[in-house]
Write a structure and sequence with these properties.
Strands 1, 2, 3, 4, 5, 6, 7, 8 and 9 form a nine-stranded mixed β-sheet that branches. It contains four helices and nine strands; from the N terminus they run H-H-E-E-H-E-H-E-E-E-E-E-E. The chain is an alpha+beta fold and 168 residues long. 28% of the residues are buried. It is elongated, with a radius of gyration of 21 Å. Strand 4 and strand 5 form a beta hairpin. The longest helix has 14 residues. The protein has one domain: Mannose-Binding Protein A, Chain A, CATH 3.10.100.
Length: 168
């Protein structure tokens, strides 16, 4: 019969300290490292800049999407985070398919007169017929602005915080 090795409590504690449980089950313990929780979502505020389509790509690579802002509370949270970082940030809103018809790209939800928005005064204005992607724009006190999609800005990714989901 093979000899069994017993682990003492100190060895067990050390082994447990070496395992990041979030890595084993990223949907059981809230947001991943590098993401911030608010409500039922996790947000990643990028450390690099990309054009709007590049930002969209990198959010998808991280299993998220460019942020879709649904209400005043979510907007206030994100605006506070953006102001701390003192940069312009992309959001997932565009009118690239039809000028003046703004749509959240991931959900394909159109902005209507009943939708929450936080445009800066006079925006969106499609300056020089070349602004089709929305951002929190630093020079306009972090209100929404239509920006040129090919400009490089920071970006905000969003994903559902699966720990807040009720199952059963």
């Amino acid at each position: 019969m093979p000899k069994q090795t017993m682990l003492n409590p100190m060895m067990i504690s050390w082994l447990i300290s070496q395992v990041d449980l979030r890595e084993l089950s990223p949907f059981s313990f809230g947001c991943r490292s590098g993401w911030v929780t608010h409500g039922s979502s996790c947000y990643h505020f990028s450390h690099d800049t990309e054009p709007w389509t590049g930002a969209q790509h990198f959010c998808r690579e991280m299993k998220g999407q460019l942020v879709e802002i649904n209400d005043v509370n979510e907007n206030a949270f994100i605006k506070a985070q953006v102001k701390l970082r003192k940069q312009t940030f992309w959001i997932g809103l565009t009118d690239v398919e039809e000028e003046g018809t703004w749509m959240w790209m991931n959900s394909q939800t159109l902005l209507t007169s009943d939708s929450f928005t936080n445009w800066a005064p006079g925006q969106p204005d499609n300056a020089l017929d070349n602004e089709n992607c929305a951002c929190f724009y630093m020079p306009l006190n972090f209100l929404w602005n239509d920006c040129r999609c090919h400009d490089n800005y920071y970006y905000i990714c969003e994903m559902t915080d699966h720990s807040s989901e009720i199952v059963g």
